[in-house]
Specification:
Layout (H helix, E strand, L loop, with lengths): L1 H20 L5 E7 L17 H8 L2 E7 L5 H10 L3 H4 L8 E2 L8 H6 L3 E5 L6 E2 L3 H8 L2 E2 L15 E7 L34 H30 L6 E7 L14 H4 E7 L15 E7 L3 H8 L25 E8 L2 E9 L3 E6 L17 H11 L5 H4 L8 E5 L17 H18 L14 H4 L7 H13 L5 H8 L4 H14 L7 H7 L5 H13 L3 H14 L3 H13 L9 H5 L5 H12 L5
Parallel strand pairs: 1-7, 1-8, 2-10, 3-5, 4-6, 4-7
Antiparallel strand pairs: 2-9, 8-9, 11-12, 12-13, 13-14
Helix pairs in contact: 7-10, 14-16, 15-16, 16-18, 17-18, 18-19, 18-20, 19-20, 20-22
Amino acid sequence: MEMRFFLIISSVFILSGALSGADERPNILWITSEDNGPYLGCYGDGLARTPHLDGLAKESTRYRNCFSNAAVCAPARQTLISGMYATSIGGQHMRSSATFPEGVSFFPKYLRDAGYYTTNNSKTDYNGGPRDSGAAMKAAWNESSRKAHWRNRPDPTTPFFSVFNITDSHESNLFPNRWKNRELKTDPESVNLPAHLPDLPEIRLDLARYYDCLEEMDKKAGAILRELQKDGLAENTIVFYFADHGGSMPRGKSFTYDSGTQVPLLIRTPETWKTFREGAPGEVSDRLVSFVDFAPTLLSLVDTDIPEHMQGQAFLGPAAAAPRPFVHTFRGRRGERYDIVRGVRGDEFLYLRNYTPHLPVMQFNAYSFGIPGYGAWKAAVESGRCAKEQSQWFQPKPSEELYRVTDDPDNVKNLADDPAFSTVLEKYRAGNDRHIREIRDSVFFPEGMEGREFAAYQDDLRYPLDQLIELGSAVSDRDPAHLELFRDALKSENPCLRYWGVMGCLVLEEEATDAKQDLIERLEDSSPLIQIQAARALAGMGAKSEALPTIRHFTESAKTQELALRAVLAIDECDLLETDPGLRELLKKAKGSYTQRVVDKLLSGASNP
């Protein structure tokens, strides 16, 4: 009888071990949501209705300083899926379809090679990928569809990595047509507005709707967690919850302030894997965490080698590194608008370097301006109804921005010109330049220029990075004292240097008139992109008659969408329709989805920005 009882008990333990993962590796579950900062109860938001994520937080480490490297989805996902900065691959621009370097795969492939069953439910908006993207997808995912689920693995003992993406908080859910048949639950008068937003009825309504969307997102996260519990897998699964970037409210998504890059991150590590925890369940971590760190962290947790090409560092598991001093963020083209920004976020300060300082933060973007608060804010600024904290974003940007986030969490008081913070400014400025060098950031190889590819960024002849950092910094400074540097660059044999020489004249506008003849010569440059930007610079300094033939030509017959977009942006930014009404007919021939957005704005008569 005793022997029979022993055999039964032994069988139970063997079966239990098989069902929970006989090879002693954890399952990994990623629950991601879209377009939301830490507007959650567990992050101290008293208005949020997020009971399921708040419950998860009680069993998790809650990271207070997690940042998406990009403030918009596709470049953010490129960083997540590769373990490399999208800026080093060339994917800083939205939907730019950058090709990964040889040997770089979507990182779930390494988990699959290690015996994991990998599922993605369901977005694959990776902003590019390996040269054969179809083969790369098949290598990365056992399943990638709306039906993908860990439950579909053929053997219940196989460890899994499963991703579920929840879209309820996406920016588009704030469009008025999404609310025709929905009851508003949150009282607009109860919301607390951040310091950068004016107190307008439209903005209050947008934020109230946003809280309702977050409640729906939380319900779906709760449903996934219940499935995990029902399947008896909770005690052998490490759960990550995070958002893909910051929130949907104006100056949130797309912008490199904390409102656009800071995200919630909860990591629940069950008792089975408690050695991988950072602190006890329910504790808070102030460690700086970057999206580029996620792929190496997962490989560390499953005890798989981290490929050398990955630029992040593991923050959990056997390969965990010391906390990082900085997180590096970026902005490129979002939709139809360019805004070249690089950011450095420390535990106390946020630093931004603006490489297109002639443009306002709040450029018109047709997609985002579908949210009522954007247009209402712009109208309030134009009518003088906003304080400096809210109106400054509609003016050309400063060269550098420095915010002390510990007492300015909404990033409205720029300390870059304050002598008391000069040492801090220099430290962060140096950190930005060092990072650009370390990863060979593609920031100075403009979209639309021939030869823009990963191999070029590694080649100092094609991409002389030290010279470009000096030149780009001078453009950012917007100082007429740099004009001779820009004029010398206009004569360079290297097209990237010539481009940034043109940009230096462009940002100086009338103060660069001594370079007018140099710019006229660039209208015949071998690079069509430089021709367009030289025309844009000439138009900006008032030489519109010299600029218009080039702009007209590329508006009518550009060979690529990138060139067509640059041409119509020149028309918009310099109000050239007022100078040449004949451009209206040419605009109808411009091609490309992003180009069409600018054309629609121009033909509708909407004002800048």
